[in-house]
């Protein structure tokens, strides 16, 4: 692959303004392409080759050559850490440290000490391997395993501190401290892989060896540091609190008290399938990386552009058209890539300016994009990897989860559509001029570009494994690109594999950190004790328990990405809710919905903040508006709790009844939020609309009749007001 960088496409006479703008957005606003343009020469090539090797390794293991589970997951984590430290430099704590770079004696001294410890540790791991494999353990294995670990851990800690105090500014070469951390990742991963089988037997037990402990401590330090670099401090602080809790248990009161654990037992336990190598990393190393690479294929081949262009051609000319386009495009792409804020940046770079152009306020434009992008994670069949995590945790078949999530997801997106349509009607907005939009007839001739999605959905419902389905969809994206100007050849394939690895690194770090938290919960038993307290507080009330579950899920989601928030909330909250008699699928979908929607819930709404940065709006006001636009997502989980038919559990008549009344209910709520119901709605009418919508949550005939009755009365009132207003204007 050459070092040539992407160039801005020359505007084509045959392209609409929207198509040209989208092409420019894909070049100028693509974070991966921007990252590639920062680096040239040997450094860029080395990283690109490593990224491609990382992606190809996963695809081969998943499809061709299976690997032992622990070794595969450890390689996934270790490889992610290696690439992460080489790609993403450290950031300093505090303005003074960030403003200056003091490369003096202290900096060099820290590097020398860190390097000595890490290199000694790496040599020690090699010695352990030689002793066990070549020499047949002629030397006492405990000697090598006891001596290499402490220097490795100490060197790693010093390298991390060096990155905090002396952040590297160079863009054209590797930072020495980051190279040392990458070598440390190799060392601890190699040790754990080499002793994987023995470690499974002794992890978390008194017979755990010092080498197990020091390797695990090194791994935890590296995971926490990469998470800080890629996801911020919130998740790091939460993980730190849980780790501290594992040791402070004997001195804590009430339900938080436990016997405490020594360092060796705790850290060796953390690197098992009950901790770091548990469900989050199991999903990250299979389904998440598979569909992230699929998204990279769509991006590289420009097949993803077609989805947005088709949406503009179909709905761009309608009232508030760009907002309706955002619902479709962001929902579709958010379903695949699984990150709310990332999807806002990817699709919002085009949709937000277009929404502003037709009259939406800055904060409304950002809020619509945030609500739609976040909703993608609850849209089957991929659900931003949520369905896979849920299947892994609960044991419920993946396709059962997909089927159950269909109606709630449709209701959510229909409600967002109602919101933007009513806002457009209230402000008397128009759509974009047709001459600026792609031609629907022309795009209809390229309908074959939808084949990757069609193949994916068909294969899933035909019963193929998820891995096989994602791989087939990826191959289909490459094949259909041959019918376009953006044909996928060796260079484009290399770029897609490279981009896929870069895009997945944040999720690797986040899932590993979530595994640390889940491991603490499993080891200390705080989850079961918290569930007991939840049952006591709820006093056998399912609805009260669900309310507590909602609050905890939202709070956790404010501080961490959806994947981690759901994994932790499911470990802490779900058992108690299920013990009260709530069906496991209902309980987990309920928790998952609120973990997802924390991305648009004030005061910490990451998706809304990403949208506000693009729109130039106030972040807090944007988050409040995104919460209003996505309001249905905070009501729908209660709907499927009261009415299991919404999860396709019941007769077709029951399912149709629930779906229809739910749509009426969210329409009334949308009217109440937007203040428009057959004309402007005053405060009294809005309150009545809200009450009418909420009465339809339970799904019973009586409550539905009350809601419909309120709606009919309000229609007559609003019609009467409009008629009186028209008569008055005519008299004037």
Low-confidence stretches: 1-11, 27-39, 95-101, 724-732
- The span between the termini is 75 Å
Q: Note the beta-strand portion.
A: under 5%
Shape, principal axes of CA atoms: globular
Q: What is the percent of helical residues?
A: over 70%
Distinct helical segment count: 35
Annotation, overall tally of beta strands: 0
What kind of sheet is the major sheet?
A: none
Transmembrane segments: 45-64, 70-89, 110-130, 142-167, 179-197, 203-224, 231-256, 276-298, 325-346, 401-420, 450-483, 503-526, 533-558, 589-609, 629-648, 655-677, 697-717
Pfam family, one: DctM
Function: Part of the tripartite ATP-independent periplasmic (TRAP) transport system.
Subcellular location: Cell inner membrane
Can you walk through the features of this model?
There is one protein chain. The protein is globular and about 90 Å long. The chain folds into three domains: 219 residues, no CATH class; 365 residues, no CATH class; 75 residues. The N terminus and C terminus are likely disordered. The termini are far apart. It is mostly helical. The chain has 35 helices and no strands. Keywords: Cell inner membrane, Cell membrane, Membrane, Transmembrane, Transmembrane helix, Transport. This is C4-dicarboxylate ABC transporter permease. Pfam families: DctM. It comes from Pseudoponticoccus marisrubri.
